[in-house]
Design goal:
Strand content: 5-15%
Radius of gyration: 23 Å
Low-confidence stretches: none
Mean pLDDT: 96
Structural class: alpha/beta
Shape: globular
Oligomer: single chain
Bound molecules: 5-phosphoarabinonic acid
Helix content: 40-55%
């Protein structure tokens, strides 16, 4: 199997190899401290060897649970927020057909917002459907998923009765702590554990990501195999790919390029970028430091954000997720009248048009002062997504080490929660201002 690659040749007119090497030294130190467990946040390094620790028994249990729920239901609602849904959403969006008619079980998401209209519409959609729930929360106490779970659990009980609802609910949470664990134990739901030493945004290769992906009928073994192969590649090469990406982005950051835009030319990658934004935003954005992670879908956003990227403030750099081979072939047809003047494209594949858009954009943006890297992905498959996840996790941890922050906590997320609890009158939060 091939491996994903990194091409940073188009940043070299903005930062020199010397500047990159200086960051590389820091990256190698950061890598060492990850490996020997002396980095900041070392309680949360469970993701490091996770790919090779997943056993066939665990995969089998996840697959069986998914098969059972798929047989019992038409729809499964995945409830979770942040790291408890983005990895699964990324894989499912990337690997499902854009216009799937869902003859099998359909997977939908909830608990990643507190929109009343969203929940109303979801409840209306689930009315009279055979549905199941996969509720995911490491802490077991996060408000958004808890509210969605309370509503949907009640609906399920009303539609199917208590006994069936218990069979149709699966909880993924901490082994011992939290409200969700207590509920699951009391009701007898099937449960899967999120290991203590794996933070939410690094948890895609635990049941958090794997069960929803299996529920969507996708290949979890290939996903894991991709991660295992990237893990081996990192081991054999001193994490060269991750060290290089982390070093290049930090060399750019030191020169004032403080925003990284992850770009795709395939809308199926939209949620891969969302997953990446959470990983990098929550890991690096602290102590008044960190590259701001943003994303765009091209060519769509070339007709909106493209103007800013080409000519706006010069503090951005781009990393393009570039897929080499499409799954299908579509050619532009020839037209006898050529009134739309498109015959110059006749016989060419749509992917060639897309690839030239990608190259043309890269050249234009570099010319306009935007450094550009490419993460080259041979094909959009579960296998390469597994590689990509592990690569990005490793590079993120190294990059956090270069910045000198704890890449595994998220203290800033508490501020809004505390205010919200105070405003809503949660017991214990009354006196906060
Ligand atoms: O990365 C993280 O730890 C967070 O973003 C969490 O994933 C998110 O806040 C959801 O938390 P929980 O799974 O505890 O509900």
């Amino acid at each position: 199997m091939e491996s994903i690659k990194l091409d940073y040749s188009k940043v070299l007119s903005f930062v020199g190899e010397k500047e990159i090497s200086a960051q590389q030294e820091k990256a190698i130190k950061a890598l060492k401290s990850l490996k020997n467990g002396t980095c900041k946040g070392s309680d949360f390094l469970g993701w490091l060897d996770l790919p090779v620790q997943i056993t066939e028994n665990e995969l089998e249990r996840i697959s069986s649970c998914a098969d059972r729920l798929r047989e019992q239901t038409d729809v499964v609602v995945i409830i979770g927020i942040g790291g408890s849904y983005l990895g699964a959403k990324a894989v499912i969006e990337a690997m499902s057909g854009s216009f799937d008619v869902y003859s099998g079980t359909r997977v939908v998401f909830a608990g990643n917002n507190v929109s009343e209209d969203y929940l109303y519409e979801l409840q209306a959609f689930l009315k009279d459907k055979k549905f199941g729930i996969c509720v995911i929360s490491k802490s077991g106490t996060t408000t958004e998923p808890a509210v969605a779970f309370r509503l949907l659990k009640d609906q399920l009980i009303e539609q199917e009765g208590v006994a069936v609802s218990r069979e149709r609910i699966v909880a993924i949470t901490d082994e011992k702590k939290g409200a969700l664990r207590a509920m699951a134990d009391k009701e007898g739901y099937e449960t899967f554990v999120i290991p203590d030493n794996v933070g939410g945004r690094y948890s895609v290769l635990t049941p958090v990501g794997l069960l929803p992906v299996a529920l969507a009928g996708l290949d979890i073994r290939s996903l894991v195999k991709g991660a295992v192969d990237m893990w081996s590649c990192m081991k054999e090469s001193d994490a060269k790919l991750a060290v290089t990406y982390a070093s290049v982005r930090n060399a750019l950051y030191e020169k004032g390029y403080v925003i990284e835009i992850t770009v795709n030319f395939n809308p199926k990658l939209h949620y891969v970028a969302e997953w990446w934004k959470q990983l990098y935003g929550e890991s690096e954005g602290k102590e008044s430091k960190g590259i701001f992670p943003a994303s765009v879908d091209f060519t769509t956003d070339l007709h909106s954000m493209g103007q800013y990227i080409q000519e706006g403030r010069r503090n951005l750099f781009e990393t393009v997720l570039s897929i080499e081979k499409t799954k299908y072939r579509v050619q532009v047809p020839c037209d006898a009248h050529d009134l739309d003047k498109l015959n110059y494209l006749a016989g060419k594949r749509v992917d060639e048009v897309n690839k030239m858009a990608e190259l043309g954009t890269q050249l234009a943006h570099v010319e306009g002062g935007v450094p550009n890297m490419r993460v080259i992905i041979p094909e959009l498959t579960e296998y390469y997504l597994g590689q990509l996840f592990y690569f990005y996790e490793m590079a993120c941890a190294i990059s956090g080490g270069i910045l000198g922050v704890n890449a595994f906590d998220q203290p800033g997320v508490e501020a809004y929660k505390n205010n919200m609890f105070m405003l809503l009158g949660k017991p214990g939060y009354e006196k906060r201002s």
